[in-house]
Each structure stands twice: as C-alpha cells, then as structure tokens.
Amino acid sequence: MRNGCRDAGARSMQDVLFYIFAVLTLVCGCLVVANPFSRNPVTSAMFLVLTILSMAGLFVLLEAFFLAAVQVMVYAGAVIVLFLFVIMVLDLQVEERQRFRRPALIGGGLAAGAVAAITLGAIQVSGGPGREGTPVEGSTQALGQLLFREYLLPFEIMAVLLLVALVGVVLLSKKDLK
Q1: What confidence tier does 25 reach under pLDDT thresholds 50, 70, 90?
Q2: Rounded Cα–Cα distance for residues 40 and 42 (Å)
Q3: How confident is the model at residue 95 (pLDDT cuts 50, 70, 90)?
Q4: d(Cα 97, Cα 168) in Å, to the nearest integer?
Q5: Which pLDDT tens digit goes with each residue over 131-161?
Q6: How far apart are CA 123 and CA 120, in angstroms?
Q7: DSSP state string for the chain
Q8: Cα-atom radius of gyration of the chain, to the nearest Å?
Q9: Domain locations in the chain?
C-alpha cells in the first residue's frame, strides 16, 4: 500500500515538472522572438539558452538522458556560442537595428501557421510511431530508432526552434542598405 502511494507521489511530481518545463519552453521560446524587455540580440540568445535547457529537462523526464546531455552540450554550448560570436562581431548599435515592418510580421505569421498546419497534418496521417522489433539497448541503431520514431516531434521542434533563432539573428543583425 505504501509503495503505491510513493509511485503516485512520484508520478504527480513528474506531471508538475512536465508542466513547469513545458511552460518554460513556450515562454522562453516566445521571448526569443518577441522580447519586450530589451531589443538587444544577446538577451534573445540568452532566452534561447533557457529554451534549450528547459527542453533538455523535458528529455530528462522522458528518460532520454543522452539526448538531454547532447542537447545541452551541442545546442546550448556550441550553437549559442556561435550565435553570440556573430552578434558580438557585428556589434550593432541601437539606431542601426531594423524595426519590424507589418508586412514582414504578417508574412512570418502566415509561414509559421503553414508550418504548424503541415506538422499537425503529418502527425494525424502518420498515426504515431510503428514498432517492429527492439534492437539492442545502447547501440547506435537503438538510439537512431528511438530518436526518429518516439522522439521525432521534440527533435523536429528543436530543429525549427534553432532555425527561427538563426533567422532572428540574421534579421536583427541586418543593416539597412538604403
């Protein structure tokens, strides 16, 4: 009886942590693109780090420890350092930063909506991951099958998030050529 209570308590703690990490991921992801606190691109890059770390927390909750570690090392480490290097090398002044234009925002919103619609359509058509056989645990084949079958959506979301961050860095660092 006590063991069942302990399992229920651990399960509810996992649920709470999931919601905390999910909300953190969404909020920090939105703050990467639309940052009301500062127009400084370094602030957006730091919010991207927080987004990546909260996604790693979600991977830990899914017991995908290797993916969480690789995500933190590769994305939060190397990719963010690359973004910050580009931002610092360009050394933009406040008056040189380009303001957002309404047609660009509308086009970006339409493009994001189209990507979301295509993603949701693909999820509905696929019907979920298929299961043939279970390869040896710990092998590269097992990791590849696990990554591209069960964790494909978080993996693709992270890739799209990095693409959005890259486009944001390019737009913020673009100089007006008038």
Answers
A1: very high
A2: 5
A3: very low
A4: 12
A5: 455 555 556 677 778 778 888 888 888 888 8
A6: 5
A7: -HHHHHHHHHHHHHHHHHHHHHHHHHHHHHHHHS-SS---HHHHHHHHHHHHHHHHHHHHHTT-HHHHHHIIIIIIIIIHHHHHHHHHHH---GGGSPPP-HHHHHHHHHHHHHHHHHHHHHHHHH-S------PPTTSHHHHHHIIIIISHHHHHHHHHHHHHHHHHHHHHHPPP--
A8: 20
A9: 2-173
**Residues contacting 76, CB < 8 A, separation 6+:** 49, 52, 53, 56
- Percentage of residues of the chain with pLDDT beyond 70: 76
More confident residue, 14 or 127: 14
Q: Are 60 and 68 in contact (CB under 8 A)?
A: yes
Residues listed for the chain: 178
The CATH classification number of 2-173 equals 1.20.120.1200
pLDDT at 127 over 70: no
Token pair 């993996």 is found at: 155
For residues 57-76, average pLDDT: 85
Residue 10 has pLDDT above 70, yes or no: no
Q: How far is CA 117 from CA 122, 158, 168, in A?
A: 9, 17, 22
Residue with tokens 């006590």: 2
